[in-house]
Amino acid sequence: MANAHLENPIPTTEWFCESVAKTREAGCQLAGLLRGGEVLSLEGPLGAGKTTFVQGLAEGLGCRAEEVSSPTFTLVHEYPDGHLPFVHLDLYRLESPKELAALGFDDLLSGSTIAAIEWGDKFPEALPPHTQRLVFSMDGDARKIRRLP
Ligand SMILES: Nc1ncnc2c1ncn2[C@@H]1O[C@H](COP(=O)(O)OP(=O)(O)O)[C@@H](O)[C@H]1O
Ligand SMILES: [Mg+2]
Fold first, then answer.
1. pLDDT digits (tens, 9 = 90+) for 88-104
2. Ligand lying nearest the CA atom of residue 136
3. DSSP structure string for 86-116
């Protein structure tokens, strides 16, 4: 089965990032563990470092990381040109799962595409069962990222 690896979660359960650069580095490091088809739900308050982490993910996946910005207004950014296809979503401004369907959510998440979904916990029932949840929290300039079991 092509996507059998999706049954095994990423091994790291926690990152502690003392700076923006460290948060970005954590994303880059995680990118090296992904094999395709993973769905990451990035959860936690505004400013907790979700978009910064995605910049690192994009860099690690060989995408043009400098183009990564918060998709709060555009909702979806697709990066087809890296080692693996990558899509970055932000559900912050969505009001219903219907809007998600209208974005073509299921098609975006297909095949070997890696998805990073900010505010993925807004519509948990819309996420595939193999979704891995990363919870971001902040303490001054430090950010903690914890993978839920
Ligand atoms: N250790 C850190 N990691 C990430 N961002 C940090 C850190 N310390 C301070 N910041 C600041 O916090 C904000 C994080 O923003 P962002 O990544 O867009 O968060 P989110 O997407 O969760 O709303 C930025 O303004 C950044 O400069
Ligand atoms: Mg963000």
1. 999 998 999 899 888 88
2. 1
3. EEEEE-TT---HHHHHHTTHHHHT-TT-EEE
